[in-house]
Request: fold
Amino acid sequence: MRAQEGASKRRAPAMTLRLGVDIGGTKIAVAVLDSSGGERLRRRVFYERREYDAAFTLLLETIQQAENDAGERCAIGVGMPGLIDPDTGLVENAYNTPFNKRSLKRDLESGLSREIRFANDANCFALSEAVDGAARGARVVFGAILGTGVGGGIVVGGRIVEGRHGIAGEWGHTPLPWMTQDEYPGPRCNCGRLGCIEQFLSGPAKNQERDVMGEDKAMARYEDRLARAFSTVINILDPDVIVVGGGLSKHERLYVNVPPLLKRYVYWRNATTPIVRAAHGDASGVRGAAMLWPL
Ligand SMILES: [Zn+2]
Reply:
């Protein structure tokens, strides 16, 4: 093993720079991390056209430009919604990006002449926060994204738990627990089912309630639903900490009001799971993608 490592080092110098890419619905973000986790550069570009070829060219050129500016060949990781179907190699469940149902991994690896690691964006978020963010030092981490959609990722011992189908942590597409009569059966979700957590806890869902009942009432309702949704995660995974990212993570009252509500719903009378705000904010996606290549 040692001899092999030596040989591969001679062929290609060890890459100390890691380039992370966060592919979103409207934009692409890239960051280059040095070996201490410091950011050498970070930037983002918006899709001008959403056809695959145009979006792919933008992605490729953005990566190449960032690597040129960093001045070294980089190890590259990509975080994006959905997953790469292990059977077909195609991107799946990434409906809001220009890359859904396309062979993005293969095309990018051929365009950049190297292996590129892919992971779900919520998994990258959880990894970044577990490695050097708000969940640093915790063994079992659940990362929850509360934004345009609701996503989640699980990191144990500093490694992403992908799951058999690559969907581990996708709590947004399970039903809201203990629905009240007026919540049942819930709105139709993008995934085709009724009453998914995403339909209650996304930013648009919260804003809709705010417009009907006002900010304070809407937030109180939101907090109770969030406590219910987290309690299912806690009953199954019992994480050491839950880290919250996405647009709604800016509401500081969540971190005060939701933890006491857990006692009502979790199958343990004194649930104390800390719920904390992400430390890296929007940058967690690109940082986690770069960290798909451990140092
Ligand atoms: Zn759904």
In short: The first helix runs from residue 2 to 11. Residues 173, 189, 191, 193, 196, 198 surround zinc ion (CB under 6 Å). The radius of gyration is 20 Å.
